[in-house]
Structures are given as C-alpha cells and as structure tokens.
Amino acid sequence: MSGSFNPSNIERxxxxxxxIPPLEKWDPDFCGDIxxxxxxxxxxxxxxxPIGREAMVRMFSRVLWMEGDKxxxxxxxxxxxxxxxxxxxxxxxVEHGVGEKGPEMVFTTSTGDRVxxxxxxxxxxxxxxxxxxxRPYLMIRFGMEGRIGRNLFYQLVExxxxxxxxxxxxxxxxxxxxxxxxxxxx
Length: 186
Description:
The protein is mainly β and 186 residues long.
C-alpha cells in the first residue's frame, strides 16, 4: 500500500451529503490494501482500533465497493482494499407496510441505508455449517449484502406464513410482490 491513504481525505474527494456517490462510474487506480476491517458484528476498525465516530463509518460505507469477492473504499482518485469478515452491512430494523405490489418490508442498516426487500434486494438465508443456525442476509447495493440480526430475523419469523410441501413446511415472507424463504420447519 502506498503511504498516501488518509481516511479524512475521503469526504473531500467525494463531497458531503448522505447519498451514495456514482461509484459505478469511477475507475480509479488501485492503490493497495489498507489496514481497515469490518468485523462480523459490523464494527469498523482502522489500524487495529475501532472507528468510534459514527459519521466516519457512514462516510466510509457510502464509498464501499465490491469486485468479485474483494471489498474496496473507492473515490474518484483512488481505490484501496479492505477486509470484511462476513457482510459489510448490519440490518438492524424493519418496517412493514403496503406498497403498489402488496405487503412490503423496508429495512434499515446500522449505517443508515434504507432498502426495500424486492427482486433487486432479495432476502436469502443460509445455514451455518457448524451451529446449524440460520444466517439471513439482504442485498443492499453493488452486490453487497447486509446481515440481518438475530432479533430482527425472529421478527420476520413472526410475520412469516407457512407453505406446506410434501415433506416439510416452509416459512416465507412477502415483500414488493416477491416471496422469500426463511427456511423449513423440521
């Protein structure tokens, strides 16, 4: 990594505001990896220390980019690699409502993203191979997912409906005209 990366320069390079910049239009040079990590629990670290300023984490999350299975902070002038232990976002809240296509759920991440579960932003659940517990995710943006917290997943299960199949019963939730499986009952 070149020694030029300075986290405080990101705001200057991408401007203020709360929206997502046009990352897909930027093609900066790769400047190497930096010692930044998003832990499994959603905590951001820089050079081994937690980033305590929420505004700084939100700013970094706005310029987070994924290519293949690698994560980067991307500005118009540089792209630096960071580590992500699981999913880069933590989904912490859901609101239930009714939209044009019927019931819908709008989720909020710990960094302030609001995402409606729909065809572009599906919910998926995989099973942890060690614990056999469900690991639910929601597509947030640019191919990056958010981990749905355990308490929030239990809320989804409460709202789920059951579909009887020949050999099991599946729990599903509906949002924006789409149906998402939460798993099967044993």
